[in-house]
Amino acid sequence: MRTVDRGQRFLSRKAAEIVAQGITERQGVSALDSLSRREREVLRLVADGYSSAKIGELLHLSPKTVDSYRSRLMQKLQVNQLAGLIKFAIQHGVTTLE
Question: Measuring CA to CA, which residue among 74, 77, 95 is closest to residue 21?
Fold first, then answer.
């Protein structure tokens, strides 16, 4: 409210993400291209069935950090379940069914 009272614009974090996603899509950047190298690594390992603890071990991260990456991926890719992350990874060649 203070921000608005000062005459500035305020967007919640969620609203800012939606706006940023819309800009990215208009610029022709795919959802996969919007991910960082580390986010892609985490996505691949999640899709391959590794636990947060194992991913953390492999990437030298805490399991809590891995969970944060997983949550961020779900937000960026606009999926609500782990299955959505796996489907995205397969569709975009991040992993295969084998």
Answer: 77
b/e sequence 35-51, b meaning 16+ C-beta within 10 Å = beeebbbbbebbbeebe
Q: Is the dihedral of CA 46, 52, 57, 59 positive or negative?
A: positive
Query: What's the rounded Cα separation, in Å, for the pair 37 and 23?
Result: 21
DSSP-based three-state secondary structure for 9: coil
- pLDDT per residue as tens digits for the range 1-28: 676 667 667 767 776 677 666 655 555 4
Which segments of the chain belong to CATH 1.10.10.10?
31-98
User: What's the pLDDT tens digit per position in 43-64?
Assistant: 999 999 999 999 999 999 999 9
Q: At the topology level of CATH, where does 31-98 sit?
A: Arc Repressor Mutant, subunit A (1.10.10)
Quickly tell me which residue has 């996969």 as its tokens. 32
